[in-house]
């Protein structure tokens, strides 16, 4: 983990890598509610979106890229927590070689289930 890059989690025998980055924004000077939904880029595919049981807005999307010469798929979960005067964006990503999709599907699905049950810290951080 590092303050600049967030956390990076993987098992040496697995094909997938889970990353987490948390961004915190001061919204005390905002004149309206923050726009927290992800706007898809041309190379991104929407998977799901809406509101989690904890009240946070979320978007799930994925994109394909090439990492170290290997075709790679990255699935993102963007979760927005709006608090009085503050907004936090939790960005989880799970990257894996496209050729290993069948091998990582159970892990990716487990990550999806767990992220959707997350309980973010409920207080404003100063």
Tags for this entry?
126 residues, mainly beta, Protein Transport Mog1p, Chain A, 6-stranded antiparallel sheet, 1 helix, elongated
Textual characterization of the structure:
By secondary structure, the chain is mostly beta strands. The protein has a single domain (7-29, 41-115), classed as 3-Layer(aba) Sandwich (Protein Transport Mog1p, Chain A), CATH 3.40.1000. Helices cover 12% and strands 47% of the residues. It is built from one helix and six strands; from the N terminus they run ββββββα. The protein has one helix at 101-115; strands at residues 7-10, 17-26, 44-51, 57-67, 70-83, 86-97. The chain has a six-stranded antiparallel β-sheet, with helices on one face. A hairpin with a 2-residue loop joins strand 5 and strand 6 (86-97). It is elongated and about 45 Å long. The relative contact order is 0.22.
